[in-house]
Amino acid sequence: MLAFRYRERRFMAVGGQQRRPVVALYERIADAIHDGTYPRGSTLPSEPKLAGELGVSRPALREALLLLQEDGLLTVRRGVGRTVNDRPPRRGFEQLQPLDELLGPVRVRALLRSREEPTDFTAQHLLAPAGSDLRFWESVLFGESLAVALSHEWAAPEDVVERLHPAFAEALRAEPAASMLTVLAEASRGVQLTAHSGISATLLGRRRGEQLDRPADTPAVLITQVVRVDGTPVMAAKHMLPTGAPALPVLQSC
Length: 254
Known about the structure:
alpha+beta, transcription
Protein backbone atom coordinates (compact mmCIF):
# COMPACT_ATOMS: atom_id res chain seq x y z
CA MET A 1 0.00 0.00 0.00
CA LEU A 2 1.10 3.54 -0.63
CA ALA A 3 2.15 5.40 2.49
CA PHE A 4 0.52 8.82 2.76
CA ARG A 5 0.94 9.75 6.39
CA TYR A 6 0.60 13.52 6.12
CA ARG A 7 -1.67 15.91 4.31
CA GLU A 8 0.76 18.55 3.14
CA ARG A 9 4.39 19.30 2.70
CA ARG A 10 6.33 22.52 2.23
CA PHE A 11 9.28 22.14 -0.12
CA MET A 12 12.11 24.61 -0.43
CA ALA A 13 15.13 24.59 -2.72
CA VAL A 14 17.88 27.13 -2.31
CA GLY A 15 20.57 27.48 -4.92
CA GLY A 16 22.68 30.05 -3.12
CA GLN A 17 22.09 33.18 -5.18
CA GLN A 18 19.52 35.97 -4.96
CA ARG A 19 18.01 34.49 -1.82
CA ARG A 20 15.25 36.25 0.08
CA PRO A 21 16.49 37.54 3.47
CA VAL A 22 14.19 35.18 5.34
CA VAL A 23 15.63 32.20 3.40
CA ALA A 24 19.18 33.25 4.29
CA LEU A 25 18.09 33.61 7.91
CA TYR A 26 16.41 30.20 7.83
CA GLU A 27 19.70 28.74 6.58
CA ARG A 28 21.74 30.46 9.30
CA ILE A 29 19.57 29.10 12.09
CA ALA A 30 19.34 25.62 10.50
CA ASP A 31 23.13 25.53 10.19
CA ALA A 32 23.47 26.59 13.83
CA ILE A 33 21.14 23.76 14.88
CA HIS A 34 23.03 21.16 12.88
CA ASP A 35 26.48 22.29 14.02
CA GLY A 36 25.41 22.26 17.68
CA THR A 37 25.35 26.00 18.34
CA TYR A 38 21.77 25.40 19.42
CA PRO A 39 21.98 21.83 20.81
CA ARG A 40 19.20 19.28 20.48
CA GLY A 41 16.65 19.72 23.25
CA SER A 42 17.82 23.24 24.07
CA THR A 43 15.54 26.27 24.23
CA LEU A 44 16.21 29.13 21.83
CA PRO A 45 16.66 32.64 23.24
CA SER A 46 13.57 34.86 23.27
CA GLU A 47 12.63 36.53 19.98
CA PRO A 48 13.96 39.98 21.00
CA LYS A 49 17.27 38.52 22.22
CA LEU A 50 17.67 36.20 19.21
CA ALA A 51 16.86 39.02 16.76
CA GLY A 52 19.52 41.14 18.44
CA GLU A 53 22.10 38.36 18.36
CA LEU A 54 21.47 37.72 14.66
CA GLY A 55 21.11 41.39 13.72
CA VAL A 56 17.73 40.93 12.02
CA SER A 57 14.20 42.30 12.37
CA ARG A 58 11.69 40.45 14.52
CA PRO A 59 9.16 39.99 11.64
CA ALA A 60 11.85 38.32 9.47
CA LEU A 61 12.98 36.19 12.43
CA ARG A 62 9.41 35.15 13.23
CA GLU A 63 8.83 34.02 9.62
CA ALA A 64 12.08 32.00 9.59
CA LEU A 65 11.21 30.40 12.93
CA LEU A 66 7.78 29.38 11.65
CA LEU A 67 9.39 27.71 8.62
CA LEU A 68 11.86 25.90 10.87
CA GLN A 69 8.96 24.73 13.01
CA GLU A 70 7.05 23.51 9.94
CA ASP A 71 10.11 21.64 8.70
CA GLY A 72 10.58 19.79 11.98
CA LEU A 73 13.61 21.49 13.52
CA LEU A 74 11.77 23.39 16.26
CA THR A 75 8.85 22.76 18.60
CA VAL A 76 6.88 25.41 20.50
CA ARG A 77 6.15 24.46 24.09
CA ARG A 78 3.71 26.46 26.19
CA GLY A 79 5.50 28.24 28.99
CA VAL A 80 8.90 27.20 27.64
CA GLY A 81 9.30 28.71 24.18
CA ARG A 82 10.89 27.31 21.07
CA THR A 83 13.03 24.23 21.61
CA VAL A 84 15.28 22.36 19.20
CA ASN A 85 13.87 18.93 18.39
CA ASP A 86 15.77 15.91 19.66
CA ARG A 87 15.86 14.46 16.15
CA PRO A 88 15.87 17.33 13.64
CA PRO A 89 15.63 16.27 9.98
CA ARG A 90 18.98 15.62 8.33
CA ARG A 91 20.56 18.44 6.34
CA GLY A 92 19.06 18.60 2.87
CA PHE A 93 15.42 18.24 3.96
CA GLU A 94 14.70 21.55 2.28
CA GLN A 95 15.53 20.30 -1.22
CA LEU A 96 12.74 20.05 -3.77
CA GLN A 97 12.72 16.55 -5.29
CA PRO A 98 10.90 15.35 -8.42
CA LEU A 99 8.39 12.56 -7.92
CA ASP A 100 10.40 10.19 -10.10
CA GLU A 101 13.34 10.56 -7.69
CA LEU A 102 11.16 10.04 -4.61
CA LEU A 103 9.58 6.90 -6.12
CA GLY A 104 12.76 5.71 -7.82
CA PRO A 105 14.09 3.88 -9.52
CA VAL A 106 11.46 4.58 -12.16
CA ARG A 107 11.46 5.56 -15.82
CA VAL A 108 9.34 8.30 -17.38
CA ARG A 109 7.32 7.60 -20.52
CA ALA A 110 6.01 10.72 -22.24
CA LEU A 111 2.39 10.30 -23.35
CA LEU A 112 1.74 13.85 -24.49
CA ARG A 113 3.68 17.07 -24.97
CA SER A 114 1.30 19.81 -26.07
CA ARG A 115 -0.09 23.26 -25.37
CA GLU A 116 -3.50 24.01 -23.96
CA GLU A 117 -5.63 26.85 -22.65
CA PRO A 118 -6.03 27.25 -18.88
CA THR A 119 -8.29 24.85 -17.01
CA ASP A 120 -9.87 25.68 -13.66
CA PHE A 121 -6.84 24.07 -12.01
CA THR A 122 -4.20 26.02 -13.93
CA ALA A 123 -6.13 29.28 -13.81
CA GLN A 124 -6.22 28.98 -10.04
CA HIS A 125 -2.71 27.70 -9.37
CA LEU A 126 -0.72 29.33 -12.18
CA LEU A 127 -2.78 32.54 -12.22
CA ALA A 128 -3.04 32.02 -15.97
CA PRO A 129 -5.44 34.45 -17.69
CA ALA A 130 -8.01 33.22 -20.21
CA GLY A 131 -6.50 32.64 -23.64
CA SER A 132 -3.04 31.81 -22.28
CA ASP A 133 -0.98 29.17 -24.07
CA LEU A 134 0.38 26.72 -21.49
CA ARG A 135 2.83 23.87 -21.99
CA PHE A 136 1.22 20.61 -20.85
CA TRP A 137 3.08 17.35 -20.27
CA GLU A 138 1.39 14.03 -19.55
CA SER A 139 3.65 11.18 -18.44
CA VAL A 140 3.44 7.71 -16.93
CA LEU A 141 6.09 6.64 -14.43
CA PHE A 142 7.04 2.96 -14.53
CA GLY A 143 8.74 0.81 -11.92
CA GLU A 144 10.30 -2.51 -12.86
CA SER A 145 7.23 -3.77 -14.72
CA LEU A 146 4.30 -1.73 -13.46
CA ALA A 147 2.99 1.79 -13.96
CA VAL A 148 3.26 3.53 -10.59
CA ALA A 149 2.10 7.09 -11.31
CA LEU A 150 0.41 9.31 -13.88
CA SER A 151 1.64 12.91 -13.99
CA HIS A 152 0.01 15.98 -15.49
CA GLU A 153 2.33 19.01 -15.45
CA TRP A 154 1.82 22.57 -16.70
CA ALA A 155 4.25 25.44 -17.08
CA ALA A 156 3.15 29.04 -16.54
CA PRO A 157 2.59 31.23 -19.61
CA GLU A 158 5.79 31.49 -21.62
CA ASP A 159 6.29 35.20 -21.02
CA VAL A 160 6.13 34.59 -17.26
CA VAL A 161 8.63 31.73 -17.40
CA GLU A 162 10.97 33.68 -19.70
CA ARG A 163 10.95 36.64 -17.31
CA LEU A 164 11.38 34.71 -14.06
CA HIS A 165 13.40 31.68 -15.12
CA PRO A 166 14.89 31.83 -18.65
CA ALA A 167 16.93 28.64 -18.12
CA PHE A 168 13.73 26.72 -17.38
CA ALA A 169 12.06 28.19 -20.49
CA GLU A 170 14.99 27.09 -22.65
CA ALA A 171 15.06 23.59 -21.15
CA LEU A 172 11.32 23.15 -21.76
CA ARG A 173 11.72 23.87 -25.45
CA ALA A 174 14.00 20.83 -25.78
CA GLU A 175 11.16 18.59 -24.45
CA PRO A 176 13.49 15.99 -22.88
CA ALA A 177 12.25 12.55 -21.84
CA ALA A 178 11.87 13.55 -18.20
CA SER A 179 9.26 14.98 -15.88
CA MET A 180 8.73 18.73 -16.01
CA LEU A 181 9.75 19.03 -12.36
CA THR A 182 13.02 17.22 -13.12
CA VAL A 183 13.66 19.72 -15.93
CA LEU A 184 12.87 22.61 -13.58
CA ALA A 185 15.11 21.28 -10.80
CA GLU A 186 18.05 20.72 -13.17
CA ALA A 187 17.65 24.21 -14.66
CA SER A 188 17.56 25.87 -11.24
CA ARG A 189 21.18 26.02 -10.16
CA GLY A 190 21.38 29.28 -8.24
CA VAL A 191 17.63 29.92 -8.45
CA GLN A 192 15.47 29.85 -5.33
CA LEU A 193 12.35 27.69 -5.68
CA THR A 194 9.55 27.36 -3.16
CA ALA A 195 6.62 25.00 -3.44
CA HIS A 196 3.63 23.48 -1.72
CA SER A 197 1.90 20.19 -2.31
CA GLY A 198 -1.39 18.74 -1.15
CA ILE A 199 -2.38 15.10 -0.78
CA SER A 200 -5.87 13.60 -0.95
CA ALA A 201 -7.44 10.17 -1.45
CA THR A 202 -9.52 9.35 -4.54
CA LEU A 203 -10.27 6.66 -7.15
CA LEU A 204 -8.53 6.36 -10.50
CA GLY A 205 -11.60 6.56 -12.74
CA ARG A 206 -11.94 5.02 -16.18
CA ARG A 207 -9.44 7.03 -18.28
CA ARG A 208 -6.67 7.14 -15.70
CA GLY A 209 -7.29 3.48 -14.92
CA GLU A 210 -6.73 2.62 -18.57
CA GLN A 211 -3.51 4.65 -18.65
CA LEU A 212 -2.19 2.92 -15.53
CA ASP A 213 -3.60 -0.52 -16.43
CA ARG A 214 -5.75 -0.65 -13.30
CA PRO A 215 -9.52 -0.98 -12.68
CA ALA A 216 -11.42 2.30 -12.58
CA ASP A 217 -12.32 1.81 -8.90
CA THR A 218 -8.69 1.40 -7.77
CA PRO A 219 -7.93 3.58 -4.70
CA ALA A 220 -5.30 6.22 -5.37
CA VAL A 221 -3.56 9.22 -3.89
CA LEU A 222 -3.76 12.53 -5.73
CA ILE A 223 -0.83 14.90 -5.18
CA THR A 224 -1.06 18.51 -6.35
CA GLN A 225 2.04 20.68 -6.60
CA VAL A 226 2.76 24.34 -7.29
CA VAL A 227 6.33 25.60 -7.66
CA ARG A 228 7.19 29.31 -7.46
CA VAL A 229 10.06 31.65 -8.26
CA ASP A 230 10.08 34.90 -6.26
CA GLY A 231 6.56 34.10 -5.13
CA THR A 232 5.17 33.69 -8.66
CA PRO A 233 4.03 30.22 -9.80
CA VAL A 234 6.02 28.80 -12.74
CA MET A 235 4.79 25.19 -12.68
CA ALA A 236 1.78 23.24 -11.42
CA ALA A 237 1.17 19.49 -11.42
CA LYS A 238 -1.21 16.68 -10.54
CA HIS A 239 0.20 13.22 -9.80
CA MET A 240 -2.00 10.15 -9.44
CA LEU A 241 -0.49 7.24 -7.51
CA PRO A 242 -2.56 4.03 -7.41
CA THR A 243 -2.51 1.29 -4.81
CA GLY A 244 0.66 -0.72 -5.27
CA ALA A 245 2.89 2.28 -5.97
CA PRO A 246 6.12 2.55 -3.95
CA ALA A 247 5.83 4.19 -0.53
CA LEU A 248 6.21 7.95 -0.81
CA PRO A 249 8.33 9.68 1.87
CA VAL A 250 6.55 12.83 3.02
CA LEU A 251 7.47 15.33 5.73
CA GLN A 252 4.80 16.88 7.91
CA SER A 253 3.82 20.52 7.52
CA CYS A 254 1.89 21.81 10.51
